[in-house]
Amino acid sequence: xxxxxxxxxxxxxxxxxxxxxxxxxxxxxxxxxxxxxxxxxxxxxxxxxxxxxxxxxxxxxxxxxxxxxxxxxxxxxxxxxxxxxxxxxxxxxxxxxxxxxxxxxxxxxxxxxxxxxxxxxxxxxxxxxxxxxxxxxxxxxxxxxxxxxxxxxxxxxxxxxxxxxxxxxxxxxxxxxxxxxxxxxxxxxxxxxxxxxxxxxxxxxxxxxxxxxxxxxxxxxxxxxxxxxxxxxxxxxxxxxxxxxxxxxxxxxxxxxxxxxxxxxxxxxxxxxxxxxxxxxxxxxxxxxxxxxxxxxxxxxxxxxxxxxxxxxxxxxxxxxxxxxxxxxxxxxxxxxxxxxxxxxxxxxxxxxxxxxxxxxxxxxxxxxxxxxxxxxxxxxxxxxxxxxxxxxxxxxxxxxxxxxxxxxxxxxxxxxxxxxxxxxxxxxxxxxxxxxxxxxxxxxxxxxxxxxx
Length: 454
Ligand code: CA
What we know:
Blueprint: H1 3-16, H2 19-30, E1 61-66, H3 73-80, H4 83-86, E2 91-96, H5 100-109, E3 118-121, H6 125-130, E4 142-147, E5 153-158, H7 174-178, H8 180-184, E6 188-192, H9 198-209, E7 218-222, H10 225-234, E8 239-243, H11 246-252, E9 256-261, H12 262-265, E10 273-277, H13 278-283, H14 285-303, H15 308-315, H16 325-332, E11 335-336, E12 345-346, E13 356-357, E14 360-361, H17 367-379, H18 390-400, H19 403-412, E15 429-430, E16 436-437, H20 442-448
Parallel strand pairs: 1-2, 1-3, 6-7, 6-8
Antiparallel strand pairs: 3-10, 4-10, 5-8, 5-9, 11-12, 13-14, 15-16
Helix pairs in contact: 1-2, 3-14, 14-19, 15-16, 17-18
The structure holds calcium ion.
């Protein structure tokens, strides 16, 4: 988006005040945003005068869904520390969802019908829901507004496979995994909680990097966590691609060990996101920015090491993760026992982070990261090729990604300029196996991969 259009929109919203007119303007602008992930975009003009933070939102109410894992921390903290209320969202509500499928179904319904307005999502669920790809053709346009967390996920292996060199580089165990079927009358079996999103991407990337074809050499499938853990105990499930606190629990409860943390696969990788229905955002632009400011302040609070003990206490509550605080303390301190002879991890930067990483923002929704998720969607030919190519992916991102709203909210909230990325691309990303993803040339990344469905 050019400086001019961004500046104009902010000035319009600042001076016009009328939410209906603002919504029309937002929609008109979003219909044809010129920003391309590949281009270098300068920072928004610092000359614009910020909207007063005391400006009353169009509505004080929003219902945001979440799954009870550590990635939802910023939403829960924003509510429990009174940050939604601080910015005028006095009736904001975070709503625990039974599963990712329930969250999807509830956002299609919308809060006026007992569902939700938005919430926390694995990627690229907002894009898939917007396009009707995982909603039986029912297109519910959504906006991605912020990233909620990085790290905090990993690939757990049943204890039955200890000593088989299942680690970061899985090539040493490739023969063992591929030969599993001959010895056991079934393939090596691995689970995640929802198909074609983050945890599926992490285990696929890891397996394929070690020469194991995730579509042919193993059985990969969506299974509820409790069933997966039971299967890992009894020997019917071999691996689980999952989020904190499960990586910690699986080792301490002697269910298995960790092959790898996602922080080791791709340092400071994009994880889960805040996304809200487009109709809600367009009707409530001030309330949207109020929500963003509350979430940003919560993310900053979550990243301060001195707050992590209180954070664990709050998140452990019955209404939230409903788990003992002692289980949340170690991952929030970046302390993981991987098991199976691997060295322990003890580095807060290897655990979940919410606001800032060494190589940029965690909260800001980089378009280049959404392009990786959609490139990987193309790599594995998910959804029968519904996202046909990189051009189609870029067009979807232009409709769904609202990094401009994040930027406006950050400036209005007085976030330090150094914490506001100047570019919607984080640049070239490097994975543990030294494969590179250049968002200006995703085709080169696809070409470089050995195992793929394109
Ligand atoms: Ca996750």
